[in-house]
Structure formats: C-alpha cells, structure tokens
Amino acid sequence: EAQVTQNPRYLITVTGKKLTVTCSQNMNHEYMSWYRQDPGLGLRQIYYSMNVEVTDKGDVPEGYKVSRKEKRNFPLILESPSPNQTSLYFCASSSLAGGYDTQYFGPGTRLTVL
Amino acid sequence: AQSVTQPDIHITVSEGASLELRCNYSYGATPYLFWYVQSPGQGLQLLLKYFSGDTLVQGIKGFEAEFKRSQSSFNLRKPSVHWSDAAEYFCARSGGSGAGSYQLTFGKGTKLSVIP
To answer: Are strands A54-57 and A31-38 parallel, antiparallel or unpaired?
Structure first.
C-alpha cells in the first residue's frame, strides 16, 4: 500500500531534550516536506526536499533541522525543543516526474514540549 | 507571497442540506488548487484538485469544486451533507516557479459541523 508513515505518532518531551520525528514514504517520491499545524493558523511549511541531499527552508524553519540521506526518509530534528514547538506535525511527499503532482500526507505526529 | 483565504472559520449545516465552503486565492500564475479534509484525530485526505482544463472538478465523497479565475475562487460544494462529513476542510494552492511551485500554501481551515 502506498503510504507516508511517521513515528512516533504522539510524543511528550521536555524543553531542551533533542528529538527526531521520522518520516518514510514507499512511493519513490522525490519531493518531501514537513508542515506544522496550529489552531487558527492552518498548516505551515517547515522544510522541504527536492531530492536526496537537497533541502531548503519553508516558511517557519527556525528551531528545526532536516536531512535527506535516502530518498525514502526525511527526518525532522528538534535539537533543543521549546514549548512553542508544541504542535501537530505532518510529513508529505510528492512525485516530481512529469511536473507537479499531488502531495500525500502522513498521519501526523502530535508533539508536546513541557 | 501566495495566500489562501477561507472566510468561514466554522459552518453548521443540517444533515441533507447543501454545502458550500468558500476559498479565495491570491492572484498569480495559474495556480494548482486543492481541497483537503481532516477528520478529528486524522491526517489530511485529498478531496479534489484543479490543475487545468474543466473548471468544475469532481472529487471523492460526492464533493465538487469550481475554479473561477475572475473571482480568484475555488469553492467546495456538496448537494447533500452526511453526518460523516463533519470535519475540518482546508483549501490549498501551489504555483510559482522552480521549487516554489511545489510548496503548498494552506488556508486556515473551515470547521464543518453537521446537525442530525
């Protein structure tokens, strides 16, 4: 089944404790992206990647890092989480073959930073 | 910068009634437009999309949307709402050039409540 998976689905942590949220897709998509969703703000893009070893900032990149060492994986790293990073995070992927295509979203990771 | 506006934060309709959710996008190159639905505690599911061609697009679950360039709108409609349609709906657009053409800009969402 074609899908985007994220782990963990739920995470409670404390300020300053480094964490990684994993994202993996099995559709051989080139494009991957991270969004955060906050009430009243909709979804905002954090980082995106056009292909392996190619990443760039989205609209709200501060406090986050990403890496794209393999095509299928795109982890989101919070090196020193703060309470304002409490949010619902979504990973998405899309094919670039033949031009723009639909982005498919993972199930989300709910992060709470105390 | 691209923007998407969903003027209605919350809409309540009776089951069986018709529905229209509004979406306006900022003017720019021909946009790619999407409607996603998010049920409580779930991820985002694509309802429909518009890239080009026929301005009336059909989606899943009986939804349709009409692209109106003159009004910069892409409103979502359903002729008869079911209780299971209660969810939050997001309009999104992409467009531009290069890597920016893949960035999705979302509206803030419209929460739909359905009265049995």
So the answer is: unpaired
